[in-house]
Amino acid sequence: QVQLVESGGGLVQAGGSLRLSCAASGRTFSRYAMGWFRQAQGKEREFVAGIRWNGGEKYYADSVQGRFTISRDNAKNTVYLQMNSLKPDDTAVYYCAAPWGIFGSGNSRRPQEYEYWGQGTQVTVSS
């Protein structure tokens, strides 16, 4: 069982930065790949970034490549999403998620591939 709690969202101007955190409970966090998703109002939930269980590989949606960075600290049971050069189109509720099964690559891009979800944190980028 994994419980996830996101934090770090807020209101920021275009061009600004935010760092999201996702704190996980449970001893098995380090065995899970982790993903970040987002859902804008009226749109489907979409993959943003994923990281391999040991942090060795990272994957990004084209829309955030070069601006966002996913990382993890297994000693702290935490995964991060550093978001730079934010745009109004990045406005959404951001969720962290852990997939079905352990020792994944982090390149699972469909929401149905994920078993555990946090409650989400709102990110609003003003123009």
Structure commentary:
By secondary structure, this protein is mainly beta. The chain is 0% helix and 47% strand. It contains no helices and eleven strands. Strands 2, 4, 5, 6, 9, 10 and 11 form a seven-stranded mixed β-sheet that branches. It is globular and about 40 Å long.
Short structural description:
This protein is mostly beta strands and 127 residues long. The protein is built from no helices and 11 strands. Strands 2, 4, 5, 6, 9, 10 and 11 form a 7-stranded mixed beta sheet that branches. A 4-stranded antiparallel beta sheet has the order 1-3-8-7, with no helix packed on it.
The proportion of residues forming helix, as a percent range, comes to under 10%
Outline:
globular
Total helices: the number is 0
Largest sheet: 7 strands, mixed
- By secondary-structure content and strand pairing, the structural class works out as mainly beta
Our measurement of the CA-to-CA distance between the termini, rounded to an integer number of angstroms, reads: 40 Å
Q: Report the mean per-residue pLDDT as an integer.
A: 96
What is the subunit arrangement here? single chain
**Beta fraction:** over 45%
The helix-strand sequence is EEEEEEEEEEE
Based on CA atoms alone, the radius of gyration comes out at: 13 Å
Total count of strands = 11
Low-pLDDT windows of residues: none
